[in-house]
């Protein structure tokens, strides 16, 4: 695992350009195997999740080439076989090959995915969707066997018991090539879902309702990419830089954002007293003065994302009154708390599993570990604010989802270096 070294306390300024959304691209890549033609994506972030998905593609005889943000995938010679469980375990989104391979071949055999360790992450709703479409699903050890080879996939109504990003996308991937009409109820409305549906429709799929809570899909038997699909900007990366800019910046311009996707986040910053200039595609963050603590509750889009709760935490430490975070999606997502305490942060978990953040005028450098991607983002911002050196171990978790992180921070005049892992 790589490590990140930060010499904190510098005043950061300049501009940063946000990359394509991790949570879009990690679904777009598996979705590409549904195509009967080569596929091209632009604005693809250079993150470990993308490289691991490319390894999984290779194991299926699907060639891919990634340079300068453009990813080309040729699934026309795809062969199914045993997918490499080491790469599958390195990320969450490998589960999208379940829906994609089921859609394409009516059969998928795949081990349980990895991804961030942020509390229980069952996939019962995904399986429920595959079964509704006529697949037979069995589990043996660490492997899931999904089979609809006898009768094929048949469009059907699907009712989710809870709102799940992954289950929504997996159901869409499978139903896109099912026979007949599928309606999926109580779906997630995240912008990344709208992006994946846009990509599938560009290739000839018939999907409506993305961004609402009911999606309707008329299955098609051929998908062909006729244009390059541009990935949407990463709203979680943007939130991370917004927090960093307000916590340690002296005037930072954040470029390539969709402000509507960021509203729950920017509204919280404004409630704290951060002065933002929000334009059509960029946001300027002024160095703030007196900030107020706020109450934050995470919930599915369009509410405040769980993936933002850790990145905003270092900024909350700079407020002059207490803040409280309630994560309704992952109530145990607290890996950053103990690590921030090592840096002198006044932060704790109360009896209701809420995270309570008290005013902390100074942080000091320490050796800490990024237990998961967004905990890593919180530690990175804290390290930039702190006096002295911070060493973040397990930095691969940050590299899973933060595009060109060392270069982007250095361009903002931070003293940061990422030392690659020896394995
Ligand atoms: C690759 C990707 O896009 N990851 C995102 C996705 O993860 P992911 O798609 O895994 O998260 P879900 O939206 O599925 O999870 C939401 C909640 O539903 C529960 N659940 C989910 C599925 C299921 O079958 N059964 C079940 O109980 C989960 O435990 C969780 O409490 O959405 C999360 C919630 O916004 C984000 O934190 C992740 O960054
Ligand atoms: C939880 C996250 O990612 P994943 O679902 O890929 O583990 C995240 O991006 O914050």
TrEMBL record:
<dbReference type="InterPro" id="IPR001986">
    <property type="entry name" value="Enolpyruvate_Tfrase_dom"/>
</dbReference>
<dbReference type="InterPro" id="IPR013792">
    <property type="entry name" value="RNA3'P_cycl/enolpyr_Trfase_a/b"/>
</dbReference>
<feature type="binding site">
    <location>
        <begin position="121"/>
        <end position="125"/>
    </location>
    <ligand>
        <name>UDP-N-acetyl-alpha-D-glucosamine</name>
    </ligand>
</feature>
<keyword id="KW-0132">Cell division</keyword>
<keyword id="KW-0573">Peptidoglycan synthesis</keyword>
<dbReference type="InterPro" id="IPR005750">
    <property type="entry name" value="UDP_GlcNAc_COvinyl_MurA"/>
</dbReference>
<dbReference type="InterPro" id="IPR050068">
    <property type="entry name" value="MurA_subfamily"/>
</dbReference>
<feature type="active site" description="Proton donor">
    <location>
        <position position="116"/>
    </location>
</feature>
<keyword id="KW-0961">Cell wall biogenesis/degradation</keyword>
<feature type="binding site">
    <location>
        <position position="329"/>
    </location>
    <ligand>
        <name>UDP-N-acetyl-alpha-D-glucosamine</name>
    </ligand>
</feature>
<protein>
    <recommendedName>
        <fullName>UDP-N-acetylglucosamine 1-carboxyvinyltransferase</fullName>
        <ecNumber>2.5.1.7</ecNumber>
    </recommendedName>
</protein>
<dbReference type="InterPro" id="IPR036968">
    <property type="entry name" value="Enolpyruvate_Tfrase_sf"/>
</dbReference>
<keyword id="KW-0133">Cell shape</keyword>
<comment type="function">
    <text>Cell wall formation. Adds enolpyruvyl to UDP-N-acetylglucosamine.</text>
</comment>
<keyword id="KW-0808">Transferase</keyword>
<feature type="domain" description="Enolpyruvate transferase">
    <location>
        <begin position="8"/>
        <end position="409"/>
    </location>
</feature>
<feature type="binding site">
    <location>
        <position position="92"/>
    </location>
    <ligand>
        <name>UDP-N-acetyl-alpha-D-glucosamine</name>
    </ligand>
</feature>
<comment type="similarity">
    <text>Belongs to the EPSP synthase family. MurA subfamily.</text>
</comment>
<feature type="binding site">
    <location>
        <position position="307"/>
    </location>
    <ligand>
        <name>UDP-N-acetyl-alpha-D-glucosamine</name>
    </ligand>
</feature>
<comment type="pathway">
    <text>Cell wall biogenesis; peptidoglycan biosynthesis.</text>
</comment>
<dbReference type="GO" id="GO:0008760">
    <property type="term" value="F:UDP-N-acetylglucosamine 1-carboxyvinyltransferase activity"/>
</dbReference>
<dbReference type="Pfam" id="PF00275">
    <property type="entry name" value="EPSP_synthase"/>
</dbReference>
<keyword id="KW-0963">Cytoplasm</keyword>
<feature type="binding site">
    <location>
        <begin position="22"/>
        <end position="23"/>
    </location>
    <ligand>
        <name>phosphoenolpyruvate</name>
    </ligand>
</feature>
<keyword id="KW-0131">Cell cycle</keyword>
């Amino acid at each position: 695992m790589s490590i990140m070294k930060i010499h904190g306390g510098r005043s950061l300024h300049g501009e940063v350009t946000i990359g394509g959304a991790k949570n879009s691209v990690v679904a777009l890549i598996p979705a590409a195997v549904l195509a009967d033609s080569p596929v091209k994506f632009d604005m693809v972030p250079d993150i470990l999740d993308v490289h691991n998905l490319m390894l999984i593609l290779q194991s299926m005889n699907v060639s891919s080439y990634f340079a300068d943000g453009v990813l080309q995938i040729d699934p026309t010679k795809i062969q199914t076989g045993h997918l490499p469980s080491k790469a599958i375990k390195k990320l969450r989104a490998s589960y999208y090959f379940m829906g994609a391979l089921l859609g394409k071949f009516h059969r998928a055999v795949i081990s349980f995915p990895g991804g961030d360790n942020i509390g229980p992450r069952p996939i019962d709703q995904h399986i429920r969707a595959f079964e509704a479409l006529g697949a037979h699903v069995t589990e043996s050890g660490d492997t899931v066997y999904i089979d609809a080879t006898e009768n094929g996939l048949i469009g059907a109504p699907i009712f989710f018991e809870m709102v799940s990003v992954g289950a929504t996308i997996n159901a869409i991937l499978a139903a896109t090539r099912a026979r007949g009409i599928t309606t999926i109820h109580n779906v997630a409305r995240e912008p990344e879902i709208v992006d994946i549906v846009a990509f599938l429709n560009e290739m000839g799929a018939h999907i409506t309702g993305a961004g609402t809570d009911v999606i309707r899909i008329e299955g098609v038997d051929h998908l062909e990419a006729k244009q390059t699909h541009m990935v949407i900007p990463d709203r979680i990366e943007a939130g991370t830089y917004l927090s960093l800019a307000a916590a340690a910046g002296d005037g930072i311009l954040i470029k390539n954002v969709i402000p509507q996707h960021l509203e729950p986040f920017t509204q919280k910053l404004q409630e704290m007293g951060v002065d933002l200039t929000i334009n059509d595609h960029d946001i300027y963050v002024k160095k703030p003065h007196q900030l107020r603590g706020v109450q934050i509750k995470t919930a599915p889009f369009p509410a405040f994302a769980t993936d933002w709760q850790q990145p905003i935490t270092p900024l909350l430490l700079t407020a002059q009154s207490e803040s409280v975070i309630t994560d309704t999606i992952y109530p145990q997502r607290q890996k950053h708390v103990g690590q921030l305490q090592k840096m002198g942060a006044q932060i704790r978990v109360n009896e209701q599993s809420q995270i309570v953040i008290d005013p902390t005028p100074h942080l000091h450098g320490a050796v800490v570990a990024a237990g998961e991607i967004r905990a890593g983002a919180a530690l990175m911002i804290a390290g930039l604010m702190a006096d002295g050196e911070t060493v973040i171990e397990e930095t691969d978790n940050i590299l899973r989802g933060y595009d060109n992180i060392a270069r982007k921070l250095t361009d903002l005049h931070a003293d940061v270096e990422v030392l690659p892992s020896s394995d």
